[in-house]
Structure to design on (204 residues):
């Protein structure tokens, strides 16, 4: 289909990739808890935008460049780890009533999600190594193949983000009634972000 080797497996791989716990999922859940459905959808669109940049960069040959110069990928790992750790530290240090680390304005959520996606080595590795495996050299149709893959990724990401956003929103409505629980969950999210950052830093 459109030069994609085993389209069904490609869809399954994308869904599995989306469901793997990581900074993107944490940002989606946290943003929905802070900014409601608009915040969650803004993050979803930000993740889609970041994914599209990474995918088309891989198409343009950036993947080959990073493979040829491991130091470049290592620098991205360290940058991503530092960014996540900084976010986590701010969330842990946040005091009750303080402004949220993830701003409630949808535009801020979008920008945050784009940054997290672009600095997420999990996403970079996917587009560098895993993504090319689904391109059928014999039936490759150039832009049509890449366009179909990009559209599939965007659609699945939007559907996944919408489901997670709605589930999180309805649960968050109950949690808002208890500020202590909300504060504890915020600090817990901060700990997870720092842990993600540490994991990325040592994954070399």
């Amino acid at each position: 289909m459109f030069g994609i080797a085993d389209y069904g497996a490609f869809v399954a791989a994308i869904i599995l990739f989306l469901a793997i716990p990581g900074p993107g999922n944490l940002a989606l859940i946290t943003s929905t808890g802070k900014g409601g459905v608009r915040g969650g959808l803004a993050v979803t669109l930000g993740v889609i935008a970041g994914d599209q940049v990474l995918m088309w960069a891989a198409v343009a040959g950036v993947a080959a460049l990073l493979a040829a110069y491991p130091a470049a990928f290592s620098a991205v790992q360290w940058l991503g780890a530092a960014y996540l750790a900084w976010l986590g530290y701010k969330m842990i240090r946040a005091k009750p009533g303080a402004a949220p680390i993830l701003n409630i304005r949808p535009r801020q959520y979008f920008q945050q999600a784009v940054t997290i996606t672009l600095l997420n080595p999990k996403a970079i590795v996917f587009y560098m190594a895993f993504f090319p495996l689904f391109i059928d050299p014999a039936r490759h149709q150039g832009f049509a193949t890449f366009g179909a893959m990009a559209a599939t990724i965007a659609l699945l990401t939007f559907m996944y983000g919408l489901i997670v956003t709605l589930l999180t929103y309805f649960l968050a409505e109950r949690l808002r009634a208890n500020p202590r629980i909300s504060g504890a969950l915020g600090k817990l999210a901060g700990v997870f972000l720092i842990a993600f950052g540490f994991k990325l830093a040592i994954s070399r």
In short: The two ends are 36 Å apart (CA to CA). Helices lie at 7-19, 23-60, 62-68, 70-93, 106-118, 121-130, 143-175, 179-202. The mean pLDDT is 75. Residues 123 and 129 are 10 Å apart (CA to CA).
